[in-house]
Write a structure and sequence with these properties.
Layout (H helix, E strand, L loop, with lengths): L6 E6 L5 H14 L10 E7 L2 E9 L10
Antiparallel strand pairs: 1-3, 2-3
Length: about 70
């Protein structure tokens, strides 16, 4: 059993877009002072309209990110 905390995610339709999506997630986290866990991104693959939809997630490091409620 894995427990996953909050994530930042982005979707794409092609595996060739992965590097671009990784950078978008990193940029978003830096712009918003969010620290990501030092671990690989994880992927969810869904069948979609004759192809695949990829959700790419990066887990937020809650111990090192200040959350303002």
């Amino acid at each position: 059993v894995y427990i996953i905390g909050p994530t930042i995610s982005h979707k794409c339709f092609e595996k060739e877009e992965f590097d671009e999506v990784y950078q978008k997630i990193r940029n978003f986290s830096m712009e918003n002072n969010i620290i990501l866990k030092e671990q690989p991104f994880y992927h969810v693959i869904l069948e979609y309209a004759g192809g695949n939809l990829y959700e790419i997630h990066a887990e937020v490091d809650l111990d090192r990110t200040e959350i303002n409620e």
